[in-house]
UniProtKB/TrEMBL annotation:
The keyword Mitochondrion applies. Its main location: mitochondrion. One of its GO terms (molecular function) is structural constituent of ribosome. This is Large ribosomal subunit protein mL43. GO terms for cellular component: mitochondrial large ribosomal subunit. Residues 140-160 are annotated as: Disordered. The keyword Ribonucleoprotein applies. Pfam families: L51_S25_CI-B8.
């Protein structure tokens, strides 16, 4: 087993600021595009800046976009989130479409949660005061002393009559009454 988890921060998974309860708040605060003006590995980043950056900035007014040219360096995306986390991504030899996809991915994330060692797989802001649920919680006390198989416990429950069954029953009663009236009328004619 690896000991790499010893150096990670630990905590509980939780939605930042209960995001999505009232309205969605984009967690990406600012993104920095670092690139070289001459290097061939920055061609995709330069193409993205020339063709798609203005559209991205207009579509996402809540995200601050910085463009930082650097000499003889590989292109890098640096995303900073509202929770203070920073995510760094190398974009060496990526096309403008790939960079656009990476930026969309960074926009939909809520920070670098992969560098967090989880103590539990779930967390709630409002824990239950009623205690944990168990399968025996709403079970009747008489069922605890029974031995199975039990003929009485396997009987079907008396369920109330459905509306369809009630209509079928009324229809049959009407047919019987109509049949009896027709039979009585026949007997009267024969008697006369």
């Amino acid at each position: 087993m690896s000991n790499s988890h010893l150096f990670l921060k630990s905590g509980f998974p939780r939605a930042p600021l209960q995001n999505g309860v009232g309205r969605y708040v984009c967690q990406l605060q600012r993104i920095t595009l670092k690139f070289c003006k001459n290097n061939g590995s920055s061609r995709g980043m330069r193409d993205f800046i020339e063709n798609h950056l203005l559209d991205f900035a207009k579509e996402n007014p809540g995200i601050v976009v910085y463009v930082k040219p650097r000499r003889h360096r590989t292109p890098v995306l640096v995303a900073e989130y509202l929770n203070g986390e920073r995510e760094w991504m190398s974009c060496r030899n990526n096309t403008q479409e790939e960079i656009s996809k990476w930026i969309d991915l960074l926009k939909t994330q809520n920070g670098n949660s992969s560098s967090l060692r989880l103590r539990k797989m779930w967390h709630t802001e409002v824990p239950s005061i009623q205690g944990p649920w168990t399968p025996f919680l709403l079970r009747s006390p008489e069922a605890t002393g029974q031995t199975y198989p039990n003929a009485e416990a396997s009987k079907p429950l008396d369920t109330p009559q459905t509306a369809t069954e009630k209509l079928i029953e009324l229809f049959r009663q009407q047919q019987l009454e109509a049949g009896e009236e027709a039979h009585d009328a026949l007997n009267k004619k024969r008697a006369e």
